[in-house]
Design brief:
Length: 384
Amino acid sequence: MDFDLTDEQKAIRELARRFADEEIAPSAKERDEKEIFPDEILKKMGPLGFLGGPIPKEYGGAGLDYIAHAILTEEVGRACSSVRTTLSVHISLAQLTILKWGSEAQKKHWLPRLASGEILGCFGLTEPDTGSDAANQKTTALKKGDRWILNGAKMWISNAGKAELAIIFAQTDKSKGAKGLAAFLVERNTPGYSTRDIHGKLGMRSSNTGEIILEDCAVPAANLLGEVGQGFKVAMSGLDHGRYSVAAGSVGLIQACREASVAYAKERVQFGKPIAGFQLVQEMIARMRVSEDAARLLVYQAGHLKNRGRPDTIATCIAKYFSTEAAQQAAMDAIQVHGGYGYSNEYPVERYLRDARVATLYEGTSQIQQLIIGRHETGISAFV
Ligand code: CAA
């Protein structure tokens, strides 16, 4: 087992950290306060290859291995979780799903445009009444000639209001349940397709979240992604990538909590000495460091499996569950270290807590990750 990063992985860390420190972090507070989507940042990330990291070069990506992809995601997450969320959905849920399930023509048509940042992608699985029970899709797809007619609504979709391309999951035959689902590549300009932004979120306020409404939305048969009946597998395999990216971003968020806490604890003086010298403050900082290292190792373990093309669902669920819960705890501790100042937006840690909160919910709640892991260990499904 080799814990050293390759030269390429080290170079990605350096490049991504410099970019994140100079271009992402300085505007994070203002974008959060004013709910400004990071269009300008994304424009700069495209030419650097940051918007299609793990996509092979032949399809316009940077051809990064999955550890390097995690490192890049960590660095973005360390600077701003909203930008990281945008990337997690655009790269991991949208592009990697097309890479796995797309026909050669679909991959050649869509991936270069997505990887360069010419267009953004999103992943339309969740519905107003369908969250954890993802197989229970209410959106319908009816074949008419050489088109599929989609009707329904998608909810809490990251990038919905910005994406030119959505992967939409829909039911083609209710009697077949999960085996009736199909996935479609739907372009924003398709008649019957519209979106509505969601405002007032607790965190991730600089990311775009919205609803997608499908009203007799006619999609060419050529836009079917995978086969009819494979939709649930398409969704689950996409989530294997999306959850990995969320886990990596959470590692970056824990690191941000630790760094902010160490800096503050060294300058804040109480009882005549910096609070960094108090054992109970050190306890919180040590807890952040331990969870950061453990989360990072769990992410890289899943990345190692992905690099080798081996099943990674359980390793990814473990990494996502641990990292997102640990990020929440780290943000709570970071506020505690900052005392009253941590409760105001003078320091970034209150944003870290608000941003950390959703990662235990989206792309599968912590409870869903636990039940997938529990089923793997016991052989008994809690879902049936
Ligand atoms: N990759 C490929 N195939 C997979 C798979 C994977 N990771 N996991 C399961 N499958 C396959 C299985 O092999 C099985 O195939 P067969 O029928 O041929 O045997 C089939 O899919 C059914 O598998 P399961 O029995 O495991 O499915 P289940 O019904 O028990 O799954 C569940 C239940 C795990 C709770 C699942 O519904 C789930 O993960 N729910 C959470 C959904 C979620 O994370 N939603 C968030 C979406 S994010 C979003 O939409 C918004 C956004 O922008 C972020």
